[in-house]
Write a structure and sequence with these properties.
It contains 16 helices and 21 strands. With 509 residues, the protein is of the alpha/beta class. The strands form five sheets. It has a seven-stranded mixed beta sheet, sandwiched between helices. A six-stranded mixed beta sheet has the order 10-9-8-11-12-20, with helices on both faces. Strands 1-5-4 form a three-stranded mixed beta sheet, with helices on one face. The model has no long low-confidence stretch (mean pLDDT 97). The structure holds NADP nicotinamide-adenine-dinucleotide phosphate. NADP nicotinamide-adenine-dinucleotide phosphate (NAP) binds next to helix 8 and helix 9.
Length: 509
């Protein structure tokens, strides 16, 4: 049995055991994947992944350190000069298509592992697998279409550009969409001919490991895609600072983004920083209220609010504010919260730390006079798991953390405004700039505001519009660089310019 097949077999056991809710010591898995071989950490250290719905350990996995990162970086660099370096772009695309097929064939396993690690409802985990496969296919199709250009210098010259792979790349991912975020940056990196080392979040190692094992089964040569599981300030920091790494793609919080950006800057390596947001949804009195309500409910509560681009500030024109909030509460009250394996609308938060952070934001808001129109605590009758009810707040003091900082939970705060200028001022008042939404039937107003809002993405009369084709990223503290779309592939390409002086006579004549 190949190492990839053995790894997938252990992952299947973990998935079955986890879904069945088996307690006791969790199975151990060698989760560092280098040169298509699964390894334990050289130090022998391990970490535990816990099912956040049931608070039951799911797996003991490897806590990679500096030496493991070094081995992965060496492997990624070696692979650049081997078979992979000579693999034609079209063939890279075929391998990505094959990997997308493998993800879909293993959809149930991957979805189960994702729900086990992070608690999200099973049908949403299945959707994430489908999204990851679509991401790979988009990039597969682009692999042989990233053309260089010829530069007009006149009759005496031929000048052209070639696209070279950036090299050995680091990918550091968060826990909210572990598989989706891995596919989002690995798809274009592999399409462009790079090699990669992936460091998933400590809460969610399992689908990243499965992804690498499936890539090996799909035919990617050893060393092209390596995974080092472990802690951010150990394995993650060692990876970002490793001299053999040519570029870094980081998805995570603003605070960690600052550390990663500084480290990459010290080594003069390009970095993409996909960070957090405190995203406003602006609803004008002339909006189609049903559509705006759909956007608010989906935007605020999808993935239990643990989405970088979730709606966390609801800016409502004063004339419609009360009615909108009444209907929002009515609709949100219907949402079910529960164990991810029972497929509710909302699963738990990922960890006790995340629950504590969200609780802290709520407590401070309540102390300073906020009014909970819905939720604000644990669902009734729940004693286990890191659950929090869908929560809608009004009267939130604008200086509270709930109003100013990324909460990353199913909590939305409403703020009234009067007129376009005030809406814009509130929307732009924070250091974040990831996503924003405008609901209005006035197209001029929508487009005027879309240009003035400081955000990498603006959605009009909808939320979560777009997929792998549409570039995403932040401005201000929400980061820089863009992922998805053709922009996402450019992150992994180095342009080389080649100039030729053409002699104007035949040699010897
Ligand atoms: P995080 O704490 O910043 O961690 C993200 C990743 O960085 C994890 O793998 C983490 O490892 C690692 N890390 C931590 N310290 C590091 C260091 N010193 N050097 C290198 N890596 C380090 O974020 P999170 O809590 O996992 O994820 C939630 C955040 O991600 C939210 O802010 C959310 O908005 C953001 N996000 C942004 C986007 C986007 O597209 N803009 C998409 C999804 C999520 P450990 O797990 O071991 O700490």
């Amino acid at each position: 049995m190949s190492a990839a097949a053995e790894t997938l077999s252990v992952l299947k056991d973990i998935a079955e055991r986890g879904k069945a809710g088996a307690s006791g010591r969790a199975p151990e898995i060698a989760s560092i994947f280098i040169d298509s071989e699964a390894r334990h950490a050289l130090s022998g250290a391990t970490l535990v992944s816990t099912n956040p719905s049931r608070e039951i350990p799911a797996a003991n996995f490897s806590r990679g350190g500096r030496e493991d990162v070094h081995a992965a970086a060496v492997s990624a660099r070696r692979a650049l000069g081997g078979e992979w370096g000579g693999t034609a772009p079209q063939r890279r695309g075929e391998l990505l298509y094959a990997l997308a097929d493998k993800l879909e064939e293993s959809s149930e396993l991957l979805a189960t592992l994702e729900t086990l690690d992070v608690g999200k409802p099973l049908s949403q985990s299945r959707g994430d697998v489908a999204g990851a496969a679509a991401t790979l296919r988009y990039n597969a199709g682009a692999a042989d279409k990233m053309e260089g250009s010829s530069v007009p210098l006149g009759a005496e010259y031929l000048d052209f550009t070639e696209h070279e792979p950036l090299g050995a790349t680091a990918h550091i991912t968060p826990w909210n969409f572990p598989l989706g975020m891995a596919a989002r940056s690995l798809g274009p990196a592999l399409a462009a001919g790079c090699t990669a080392v992936l460091k998933p979040a400590e809460q969610s190692p399992l689908t990243s490991l499965a992804f690498a094992a499936l890539a090996s089964e799909a035919g990617f040569p050893p060393g092209v895609l390596n995974v080092v599981t472990g802690l951010g300030d150990e394995a993650g920091a060692a990876l970002v600072g490793h001299p053999m790494i040519d570029g870094v793609t980081f998805t995570g919080s603003v605070a960690t983004g600052r550390i990663v950006g500084a480290s990459a800057g010290r080594n003069l390596k390009p970095v993409v920083l996909e960070l957090g947001g405190k995203n406003p949804l602006i609803v004008f009195a002339d909006a189609d209220m049903d559509r705006a309500l759909d956007a608010a409910v989906e935007g605020a509560f999808d993935n239990s609010g643990q989405v970088c681009s979730s709606v966390s500030r609801l800016l409502l024109e004063n004339g419609v504010k009360d009615e909108f909030l009444r209907k929002l509460v009515e609709r949100s009250r219907e949402l079910t919260v529960g164990d991810g394996f029972e497929d509710p609308d909302l699963g738990p938060l990922v960890s006790p730390e995340q629950l504590e952070k969200v609780d802290g934001h709520i407590a401070q808001a309540l102390e300073s006079g906020a009014r909970a129109l819905l939720g604000g605590g644990r669902p009734a009758g729940v004693s286990k798991g890191y659950f929090i009810e869908p929560t809608v707040f009004d009267n939130v003091d604008v200086n509270c953390r709930l109003a100013r900082e990324e909460t990353f939970g199913p909590v939305v705060s409403a703020f009234g405004f009067s007129g376009e200028a005030e809406a814009l001022a509130i929307a732009n008042s924070l250091p974040y700039g990831l996503a924003a939404g405008i609901h209005t039937s006035d197209i001029d107003r929508a487009l005027r505001l879309a240009r003035r809002i400081e955000a990498g993405t603006v959605w009009i009369n909808g939320w979560f519009i777009g997929g792998v084709q549409a570039p995403t990223g932040g401005v201000k503290d929400s980061g820089y660089g863009r992922e998805r779309g053709i922009a996402g592939i450019r992150n992994y390409i180095r342009i080389k310019n080649i100039g030729v002086h053409i002699a104007d006579h035949c040699a010897g004549g």
